[in-house]
Amino acid sequence: MKPALDRGSLALGAYVYTVLAFVIIPLVIIIPMSFGQNDHLEFPPSGFTLKWYAEYFTSRGWRNATWLSIQVAFLTAICATLIGTAATYAMVRGRGQLASLFQILLIGPIIVPHIALAVGLYLFFQTIGLSGTVPGFVLAHTVLALPFVVFTTAAALGKVDANFEAAAMSCGATRWTAFRLITLPLILPSVVSSAFFAFIISFDEPVVSFFLSGVRQKTLPRRMFEDIEQNLTPVIPAIATLLIVLSVAILLGAYAMRSRARS
Amino acid sequence: MNVNYPSDKVQAAGAAVRIRRLEKRFQSVIAVDGVDIDVSAGEFLALLGPSGSGKTTILMSVAGFEFPTSGSISVGTEDLTYVPANKRNLGMVFQNYTLFPHMSVLDNVAFPLKMRGVPKAERYARAEEALATVRLAGYGSRHPNQLSGGQQQRVALARAIVYRPRVLLMDEPLSALDKNLREEMQLEIKRLHAELGITVIFVTHDQSEALTMADRVAVLKDGRIQQIGPSRELYERPANLFTAGFIGEMNFINVTAEGSGGNISVLLPSGERWQLPASAAVEPLTGCQKAVLAVRPERLQLGDAHNGFTFRVKVDDVVYAGSASLLIGTLPDSTEIRARLPGASDLSALALGSTAVFTIPKEAILLYPGAAQ
Fold first, then answer.
1. Is the C-alpha dihedral spanning A179, B95, A95, A107 positive or negative?
2. Residues B225 and B272 placed together within one structural domain of the fold
3. Fewest Cβ atoms nearer than 10 Å: which of A65, B68, B145, B173?
4. Which residue intervals define the domain ABC transporter in the entry (chain B) (predicted)?
5. Mean pLDDT, to the nearest integer, of B343-365?
6. B213 and B266 share one domain
7. Could you give the ipTM of this predicted complex?
């Protein structure tokens, strides 16, 4: 016999679906809006056109911004993953008493408001001439992405027996060889998935980019904010839709990586 | 390794290990406190002690994973005290197998040879050979997670011996296995030791494992060696009260002892006085002093056997266990006494609360200065 639905489980169900709706509705609204024919944002959209997508792909300004963001995100992914993995290794395996201080510093960028970090980096980069340059963006974004790399790889590294490396060393491997041949392959799926995260975090980052962008060097989110202030055409939902597709693809990739690691 | 193996491997494969005044401090904690051990070539030495006794730290210092605060370690003629672990050429087996999970069994066993630059064909051939030595021929293509715990530990053993190290170090290698498997592996390791003639240093907290496997056992407590010697010596004539209580079961009775000439006179709590031969005293006695009389439970005989001293015990419990029965009783001053009686003994007279007469043969008595807790 099927048990009767009680009020508690009804309320829980309603709550869960409300939360899901709040998460999904913006996506459901933004995607149709990108196909609207009118020059201004409207919902529900009227007509159907791909011209906003065409504008995005043909406009020089959008292309430049996108290319800059891709460069920055790619380099950030590499830097954050290299530094983050090395730092995580020191944190998880190191015997030093500084480990906990180290941990706080590494996850600091999550706690510090981005605006504070942005202002600080802006003033600093202005004086040393890094503002508006690719290395400047990469440095700043690496700081923001590091905590996510550290969290992801620390979880994976914690599950790898530290004695594996000791065993490899007793077999004649140097510490570096032991890490490269034993530990790294075992945590690689998490390292790759943390690189994906770092990429998204950089690609999507508006606050620090707002401060660091120059007249010509603008990242995609910075350019989008500019367009929202000045034009607010459906090219914004068109780009948003493309970004959603990209993010979902990357997240699925990261998920596939991690489930491979688990099996 | 520049070691030439004569045709008779059993003679010369092992190397002597010398540990001199080894000391290791972790901040204020002294883990190893001035330990000297000489392991001769081809010997099987067990390091036995409770946790925190320093046995693992000693092994890790030999392996190169800990560097001593002072003292020296040499293998053969080479001083290895501060040589990195990967340059020591010692075989090592860890407690939790530590097989590399992303490699096949064959690649695991071939790993040390790969690190030594042995060409692929040769290293696989030698890895197969090592697998055959641990009776796992044909398992090479499997992955470690497809093997049982015992098989995994045998693969770890094959990996440790594949490049013919002169010394094999084992850190509680059997403690993760269940009892039957453990006994099987004990025999397997003994067989390998005899076959390869390799020097083995084996850390364990399981005394029966140490006593059955090793040529000599070093008993450790608080970073110091309490006694080092063959199993039989350790069991039959423990050098001090700690070893006497740590190895096997022991009855302790606090007495007052007085040495005179070739004889020792002890005053029991009951007021009785026994005359013991001088050989009973493990350490020489001086004048009249507090001492502990020690005797193994299986040396006590039920009834008056006319070959030693008799005493009375109030029976508190009798536990039947097939091959032997355990009797737990108390002396008049409430000292606990245990006796292990052969399974076939007639225990019908031993009602709980009744008094039984036991005999201690003279030669079964050991006497230590001090007092039992």
1. positive
2. no
3. B145
4. 17-247
5. 83
6. no
7. 0.81
